[in-house]
Amino acid sequence: MMAWNLRRRDVLGAGALGTAAVGLGTLVRSEPGRSRTVTLVEESGVPESRQFASALIDSGFASEVIRIDQSLNGLLHELEATTGTIIGMTSDPVAMIAGQLLGERGALARQFWQHHFAGGRWRHRTEGSVRLIENTTHAWPVAVAHQLQSAIGNRSPQVSNDCTSGSCALLASSPGMLVSWVYEFEGYQS
Question: Would you say the pTM of this structure is higher than 0.90?
Fold first, then answer.
């Protein structure tokens, strides 16, 4: 097992840099198939992460789920054994830690979408069609899950988009800054 010595300031400071660096990766478009292993990371204390995870589980897209709590229990240990495609909608620090661990193991960043609450609305930086997300309020994580699922199976280039969802209040346990991300190990693309 790897030894981790992380301080809160290091994690939060690196989050912005990680967002810019990882955001440079683009999703390699592959056809969905039975051989694809998809592991989903759910941050249980974040309602948007639970909605996102539920949408992917309900559609049968994810084969495994890693549920982590506020202390990030299980994240490091569980990610050490993953292969295939790893997907999550989490707070920025969790995305950065997962990216660091998966990157060290050889996984490639395929997608990195940002979701930020400001002015009574969620603002999204994604790829692909924005119509689904723009027409939502609190259900936007479900729309993002479906859009991400489509992006993984789409071979055509996607256009970067900035959009704003409908007016809504920030839920009490939401961090207000979330990232939906995809990492993939080579040789696991179908």
Answer: no
